[in-house]
Amino acid sequence: MSHRIAVIEGDGIGQEVIPAAVEVLESLDLDLEFVEGDAGDAVKEATGEALPQETYDLAADADATLFGAAGETAADVILPLRDAVDSFVNIRPAKAYPGVNAVRPETDLVFLRENTEGVYSGHEDDLSDDLSTLTRVVTTSASEKLAEFACEYVDGEGFSVVHKANVMRKTDGRFRDAVVRVADDHGVDTDEVLMDAFATRVCLDPEQFDTIVCPNLAGDVLSDLAAGLVGGLGLLPSANIGDDNALFEPVHGTAPDIAGEGVANPMATVLSAAMLLNHLGYSEESDRVETAVETVLAEGPRTADLGGDADTDEVTQAIIDEL
Ligand code: NAI
Ligand code: MG
User: Which residues form the Isopropylmalate dehydrogenase-like domain (predicted)?
Assistant: First the structure.
């Protein structure tokens, strides 16, 4: 079956790392059709809109979208794009790769973050000169949906539910109850960890965790913390998954300090492309791409962010040669 992939480079090094990842995907000779769309600062300057309707529609209608990064307009691009693919879960792996200087080289975690509600659902008000409020939204349905996804994702393994239901009894209580109930129904083991305790425990001993299921804000903060454990944001991929659609993007931004020089590290985007392959059912090819990245990380060549002097093309070619 042919799959249609929307490709949105965006700004800065998005225009270097996305073509690199597409080259890797093309080298696999799968039945993938790539369709390009524009978004970001440059498009806003030219048209007044950071995310033109036709790019939104392109992502909404594609089987999957690969997105680079946008500069100043990042929020105006990425939030509607996540909405275009109707994503209810954000997948953020944090894995320490060989040859990379990690604080905790034994780290190998995946965060499954609720992606639609919590404190990010947009209900914030200024009530007076002295008072602002925020309404935290948690539904049983969104929590159950995340849990259903998690049960399938872990494929027979258990997962950790990270929350703060001892204080936010109604909201995180609802989240926790729904997730644990769905896991029980599927015969999936769960352990519960309070989110503040998790922050300490994951730093001291990341190996005690594998897959972490958590509400929106906790997932945002704790996955960035885990990124620190594996040596920073530079190598990290991510996915936003919806029912019929999904968006894959490196965690890093447009890197204006090196953009245009052809020296950006393409690996976070190539690993995002590997997640895309897995999502479309090409799990064997996905594993091969990840293994190729691991081999190149271990043996070189490397870009400057990893202490090497290779450019984007050399690293991309090395990954393709490995494949
Ligand atoms: P950044 O991730 O763009 O850069 C941080 C540092 O990491 C820089 O020194 C950069 O050179 C380096 N870096 C990042 N990715 C790299 C790669 N693939 N290879 C080699 N080095 C890499 O974050 P920063 O500087 O905070 O943001 C720059 C711009 O990117 C801002 O305009 C921001 O709004 C945007 N941004 C967009 C995101 C998105 O579209 N999803 C996410 C984060 C930032
Ligand atoms: Mg974040």
Answer: 4-319
